[in-house]
Amino acid sequence: MRLMSCLAAGQVICGEGYVFELERRGYVQAGPFVPEVVLEEPDAVASLHREFVRAGSDVVVACTYYAHRAKLRLVGREGDLERLNRAALDIATNVAAESGAMVAGNICNTNVFESGDRRSSAVAQAMFAEQVGWAADAAVDYVIAETFSFCEEALLAVREVKQAGLPCVATLAICREPATFDGVAVTEACKRLAAAGADVVGVNCMRGPHTMLPLLAPIVAAVEVPVAALPVPYRTTAANPAFMTLRDEGYAAHSHAHGGAFPTALDPLMCNRDEIADFTAAAAALGVRYFGLCCGAGPHHLRSMAEALGRTPRASRYSPDMTQHPMLGTSVSAAGARARHGGQL
What we know:
Distance between the termini: 55 Å
Order of helices and strands: HEHHHEHHEHEHEHEHEHEHH
Radius of gyration: 20 Å
CATH architecture: Alpha-Beta Barrel
Largest sheet: 8 strands, parallel
Number of strands: 8
CATH superfamily: Homocysteine-binding-like domain
Helix content: 40-55%
Number of domains: 1
Shape: globular
CATH class: Alpha Beta
Strand content: 5-15%
Oligomer: single chain
Structural class: alpha/beta
């Protein structure tokens, strides 16, 4: 398995967050967040894949998050389900071939699963089976099963991936309490996912670096498989540990009706590159081996993550060098500029 070989040799970086970034660029509608862009503007998807690889991603993830039957039905495109999934896999495969990156399929929370309800479990499992089947046809290196708030739904996804004979990275979305919505502590949930056959387990989305980091050490200690950490790049807090409840207190007029900044007023709450680098170094010290960023991440964030792990991706050619700045640098002219501006800076 290529994924496990890479993890045995070191860390893996997986650039994600495509749907959020494509929404910012005007290709995805906030709210449904369905990646219709795969069919409407495939070059935009391919371009973003390339940017993430250039910034340090070892993986090209097919843009199939929220490309499942329930979501496509919501926007009246259920008939495009297979075409969209196969197109996303083709785009990812072609971009990965340019650099030798791995290719990952992607399945996610269905929004139809209800704990203890057999019918919704069967519907969710059938949705996973469709997408995993197309990923297997595309000969992906592995499948990411992510953003699950219910442990049991995550287990359904893992079982479907493993039944297809594919490696699986399974991650949970943990909100306010350090437990899944069906009452399983996050560490125990990761243990169950590993026991079900997940090759990598951990957490993604919802929590930013500051509130995800405390979850990681107990997971690393509890499981034998590599641990994944893919936070959102937002300044979540003890009061609001998940980004969906963040508030921009300094500019409340632009909060949404529910009182929060999610999803389109989060900009002032975004982490800077140093915060991402600090998180990466701290998580690596805890033993995390599979890294990435989720909703809201840009290539500059991913480059900082890669550099914090000691890498120099192609995008590092243009990493900041403030010694060359005309006012903040070390040259004689910069010193003169600082003197001229005096206390006005």
